[in-house]
Amino acid sequence: MHRSDVRKAVIPAAGLGTRxxxxxxxxxxxxxxxxxxxxxxxxxxxxVASGIEDIIVITGRGKRAIEDHFDRSVxxxxxLKGNGKGQLLSQIRHISSLANFCYIRQSEALGLGxxxxxxxxxxxxxxxxxxxxxxxxxxxxxxxxxxxxxYKKRNGAVLGVQxxxxxxxxxxxxxxxxxxxERLHEVADLVEKPSPSDAPxxxxxxxxxxxxPEIFPILRKTRPGKNGEIQLTDALKELSKASPMYALEVQGxxxxxxxxxxxxxxxxxxxxKNPSLxxxxxxxxxxxxxxxxxxxxTRTGKA
Length: 303
Ligand code: G1P
Known about the structure:
It is a single chain. By secondary structure, this protein is of the alpha/beta class. It has helices at 39-49, 64-69, 74-82, 86-96, 112-117, 120-123, 143-154, 215-221, 232-242, 260-273, 278-289, and strands at 8-12, 33-34, 37-38, 54-59, 100-105, 128-131, 135-138, 157-163, 173-181, 184-192, 203-211, 245-249, 253-256. The protein folds into two domains: 8-258, Alpha-Beta Complex (Spore Coat Polysaccharide Biosynthesis Protein SpsA, Chain A); 259-290, no CATH class. The protein has a nine-stranded mixed β-sheet with strand order 5-4-1-6-11-8-12-10-9. A two-stranded antiparallel sheet has the order 2-3. A two-stranded antiparallel sheet has the order 7-13. Strand 9 and strand 10 form a beta hairpin. Helix 3 (74-82) packs antiparallel against helix 4 (86-96), helix 8 (215-221) crosses helix 9 (232-242) and helix 10 packs across helix 11 (278-289). It starts with 7 loop residues before the first strand and ends in a 14-residue tail after the last helix. Residues 112, 132, 134-135, 172-173, 192, 204-207, 231-233 line the site of 1-O-phosphono-alpha-D-glucopyranose (G1P).
């Protein structure tokens, strides 16, 4: 196998989803739907469209629905078949054949770095991708595919970044960039969730990484950092001292669906793009925003 083939992706999904309580009290936040598809399916589809074959999901307590979602559902399939719902049937079957799925339980939420470390034995000695499913990237060329393309050319870790408003840098890992060419930088340094006054730039890591296996021994030694968690960013900082690391400005529209407002915005945008809903939903939004004179008509007919 060629060392630059990226075939495996890790999707951390063990988080408690506190930003969406009470919805996430007994259901995984990764299963919240954008229109009709759970968030994690967008991450899996992006990975598969980028050439990934094996998906390693890091789960925890209360996350079984994720495994069921990517498994066959024989009863449901029989029912759809019996009712002549062929199109839905093939959509449902397709989900379980997207990739090879493996699940690892992270028994304690010790941080993103620790979650990635849990995948070490399944990754072995090859480069791999990490996708954070909270961040949805809507792009012509899948976000992860853009990173893999750069990884193959440069043979060093690649982090997906985008510029964010200066006052929001404290929500992200922020890189200190040395420009190489359009949209590509070498990472001189990086810091997890700095205050705006300490941030080296406003280039934020947006939950897409292609990493060499050399990250694992570093993660093993990484001590808890920001918020008492083992931070992937801290391990990446160490790795960047030993070998070149790149930050690629990903092209595409990004939604932070891990945040209530971002989730609502993503829902509206995906609903507007949906072939069977878009035009009616758009019409509803227009009516809702600019009510006709003298009438407060709503979709339900209630005034
Ligand atoms: C994580 C990473 C952070 C990254 C962010 C992207 O933070 O630690 O470096 O910028 O994801 O979404 P979290 O959002 O899990 O707190």
